[in-house]
Amino acid sequence: RGTMKSLRFISAEAFVSNAEFARKSLGGVAHDLFPLLFKASYLLEQGEVIHELVKNWPLVDFNIGKLLGTTVDYQEDLSHRTCSVCLESCLTGLRDYVLNQSSPYMKKLKVVDLTGIKDVEVQFCECKKRMGRWTRTQLLSKLCLELLVYLQQTQCNPGTFEISIDVLIDLYVTERNYELVVQALLKKCYCPLKICCVAFRSDNLALQKFFYIIKLTDPSLLRKLEIVHNVRLEMEHLEILFNSIHFPLLMSLTLPARTFNVRRFTDADEGILTNIGEKMGEMTQLTELSISFSILTGRIRKLLSPLKTPLKMLDVSNCSLNHADMAYLANSFHANHLEALDLSGHNIHDLYPSTFFKLLSHSSSVLRSLTLEDCNIQDTHLNMLILSLSPCRKLQEFKFIGNPLSSQALKQLFTFLCELPMLKTVEFPVPKDCYPTGITYPIDDASLCRFDQRKYESVAEELNLILLQANREDVKASTPLFGSYDAAVEETNNELGAYLIKSFKETLEKFTTSL
C-alpha cells in the first residue's frame, strides 16, 4: 500500500516527535539519515525540527521535491502539501544555515531546489494553511535581503562570505511584491543565497515593470514563462521581448488574453507575426504553448510552423480558429505528440468535424488531457464525439463543461468513458434539462447558477453510479461551474479583484468624461 511505513520511517517519526530531544540529538545523527528525518518531520508538521535539520544540512543538495516524493521508507508523496508551518521553517532554516557557526557538520550545501512543490486545492496538513507560490516568492526575497543586512551589520566568520548556494525557485510576481523581488534580484551577487528563477509568472503588473524584472531573472535559465491576465502585452510588445531577450531553455510559454488580434491586422502586423513565429522557432526546447483568448483566425500555421520541436501541450481555447487552422493542426507534426490539448470555445462538430476527428486520431497514442469547454457539443454530436475519443486510451483528464448535453446523453457518454483505462478526472456540464426551457449557450454568468439543483444532484448521483458499477471509483467526476481550480489565482484573488474594480472605475470615469 502507498501509505506503508518502514521500521526506519516509524523510528524517524518517533525521533522527531519530541522537538527538544531531536534538536539536542541531531549532532550525533549520520548524514544519510537527514532526508529520512526531514520527510518524517514534514509529515508530522514539526516546524522546529525542520528548521534545525535545514540549519544543519550536511549534504551537497537539498531538493524538496525528491525529499518529499515517493521514497523507499514511505511511499506517499508529500510534495503537494504546501504547509505554511513546514515551508516557513524550511526557508528560515536555510537563512540560518548561512549564519550557523556552531554546526558540527562542514558546510557542503551548493544547490537548493524548491521547484518540486505542487500547489493543489485540498490541503491535508493539520494547520490547513497553505503557502502558495506568491508567498514563497515574497518570503525568500525578504529572507535574502534580511540576510544581507545582517551580514553588513554584524561581524561574521570570514567563511560566511564564501558560502554560495543556488536556490532554484518558481517566482510569482505581481504589483504587490514587485519592489521586494526586484531588490532581492538586484543584490543577488552579494547574497550567499542566490535566487535562480526557473519559472516566472507575472500578473497584475505594468508592462514596463515586467520588462525590467524579466531581465533581472537571468532569462538564460528560464524554463517556464507565464504572462497572464492583467499584463497588457500585445503582439508588438512580444516581438520586442523576443528580439531583446533570448530564452534558450524555455520549455513552456503562456501569453495573456488578446495578445494577438488578426481582425485589426495591417501588412506590418503580418510581418511582426512572422518574426514572432521565427523567434519561437529558435526556442528549441519549447514544447508547451498557451495562447488562449487571442484572435488568430487563419494564422496558426504562420505562428507554429517555424517551431522545430513538436508541441506536447497546446492551448488555443477561444482563439476563433477556422477550418484552415484546424486542418493545419491535424496534419502538422505537432499532432502526433500532443499530450494536452485545449480547443474550448470552438464549435468543433459543426465547423470542422472531420479535421477534429483526424487531429484526435493522430494524437490518440499520447493524449492525456483534453478540454472541450463551451464547444456547443449537443446530443446529436454524441456518437461522433465517442468515435473521436475511442482511440484515446491514455486519456487521463477530460473536461467538457458548458456544453448543451442532456441528462440522457451524459449517461451514455459516461458509460463509454468507463472504458478508457487511464481516465482519472472528468469535468461535466450541468445537463441542459436542468436549466429553464429556452436557455441559450454559452450561458452567461448571471444564468449559470439558475438550474434545478435537486435534478442536477439526482443526475450526478446516477453518473457516479455508472462509474461505481463499472468498478471505476478511481475516476473523479465534478462540475466546477466557474472553471477549474487555479492555485495562483486563488492566492492573489484579493489583489487581482481590487485591480479589476480600479480598472472598471477608470473606464467609467473616462466614459462619463467623454459624455
From TrEMBL:
Can you cite an annotated GO cellular component?
cytoplasm
Does Repeat show up as a keyword for this record? yes
Q: Which UniProt keywords apply?
A: Leucine-rich repeat, Repeat
Signal peptide region: none
Which InterPro entries does this UniProt record tie to the protein? LRR_dom_sf, LRRC14/PRAME
Tell me which SUPFAM superfamilies the record gives: RNI-like
Family (UniProt): Belongs to the PRAME family. LRRC14 subfamily.
Put simply, this protein is called Leucine-rich repeat-containing protein 14B
The organism's lineage is:
Eukaryota, Metazoa, Chordata, Craniata, Vertebrata
